[in-house]
Amino acid sequence: MMAHFQDVSKQSSLHPKPAELVSQYGTAGFRANAKLLDHIMFRMGLLAALRSKKTKATIGVMVTASHNPEEDNGVKLIDPMGEMLLQTWESYATQLANAEQEDLLTALKDVIEKEAINMSQEANVFVGKDTRSSSSSLSQAVLDGVAALGGHSKDYGLVTTPQLHYMVRCQNTQGKYGEATVEGYYKKLCQAFIQLINNKASNCTDDQKHLSVDGANGIGALKVHEMESHLKKELLISLFNDGSKGKLNHQCGADFVKVQQKPPTGIEINPGERGCSFDGDADRIVYYYTDSDGRFHLLDGDKIATLISTFLKELLTQASLDLKIAVVQTAYANGSSTHYLENTMKVTVVCTKTGVKHLHHAAQEFDIGVYFEANGHGTVLFSEAAEEKIQQLAENPGTDDERKRAALLLQNTVNVINQTVGDAISDMLLIEAILAIKGMTIQQWDAMYTDLPNRQLKVKVSDRRVIDTTDAERRAVSPAGLQEAIDSLVKKYKQARSFVRPSGTEDVVRVYAEAEAQESTDALAHEVSLAVYRLAGGVGDEPKPLH
Ligand code: 16G
Ligand code: MG
User: Fold this and answer.
1) If you measure from the C-alpha of residue 117 to the centroid of ligand 1, how many angstroms do you get, rounded to a whole number?
2) Same domain? 329 vs 211
3) Are residues 323 and 413 in the same domain?
4) List 12, 66, 212, 337, catalytic entry
5) DSSP state of 342
């Protein structure tokens, strides 16, 4: 045991922490300029080894900063079932990251003691990275950290974030979830996709099979390209922003498209054709098209959740399966989507705080939990009991034809979905399959409901922690008077809603507003921004009206 700590001391001096730098394991791990991350990567290697010893299972470490600019990087830890790191361990991550060089061993021993970790237990860690130029040396630092505690590691090299989540789950279920290789991932998803597509509405032309994909010049592009041969021409992909010339996430990718509400640069797409954008680590996806008048239409996470839950609900009815389905959203979900889901589709809707881990946990409470953030991150979770019921029905020789068809479709839907985390590739295959099976165009999908105009703004304040929220971030409890101010502003407009929350990834307060018309939405967003600026310690110039 002492020998391990000697190794840690020796190795950590090769990954020194810049003095006084303070970092925090945020909503989705650490994220910063890549130059500030080497010591954090090493230390996350150490922490992953400890987490592995504690859980007696394989742990994942993904090096990526998702949709951030190319100069940034980051790291996320993955728990045994492919989920995000347990929240109580996030504070250990922060403690280790911030320990000054000479205090690192003390910080490490503190975790070992608090968690009563048996240091003679083996450690196994899977490591993956995105395409950033800094990712290679940073993932090496993670591997060094694992090795310094005598752990074993497997370096998957370039993979999407959801692919690494998938590998971890495969490994810890002894292959029950699938084969823990990139090939195994393509085989599992594509086989299920092809089986689903076999049920397509009869007259599917090549045009309908065609999809333009914006790879954000990142890892997703590489992996879509790798997967193509498995698709057997059932999906015809034109890949744009494949990383051969453009810069990662620059003027492209899911975040750009969602925030700017316009198509990415570098994509060619005719009116009415489907396009989709991934983010930099391929765990988010949004769809879009341009109509014959040249108007851009975005189909975000809310539209995706609606399409998928409608499809699942129809199959459950056809299969006469009594399984409880729910859709989990955040406060950012467009009010129209919530209204449609609750009143037209009559499904249970749950609202949680922003951040995938919150949605994921809420979705686990149901037989089938469909969760999506409006920004395009999401997936579907099936309880073990639900999967069993579906399988029994599919395999029961007494099942009549209609029920059997529905059960088989459900089974293949389960297999095409990456249940560990939102996955752009897996979501894309499911959406494409649903559209083909229902013989639905993207315009018809878009017409399920009409989004309320909405606007997001940022306000700079001296300390964003003065804003405290409740009710899944929909109401502010501090500073005093802010919620009352928002309430009276909202009352001025029709179908209006607004909330504010401190960002978990940027030093700003985020403002969201929606209302009947774009003009009133923009006015409301501006007025709420002013209220935040005045009541929560705004810095710099006062927010200006949008028009
Ligand atoms: C992170 C979260 C995302 C969330 C966003 C909110 C994960 C994997 N990612 O990117 O879900 O929407 O943070 O950012 O959990 P904000 O707190 O700055 O608004
Ligand atoms: Mg991402």
Assistant:
1) 31
2) no
3) yes
4) 66
5) I
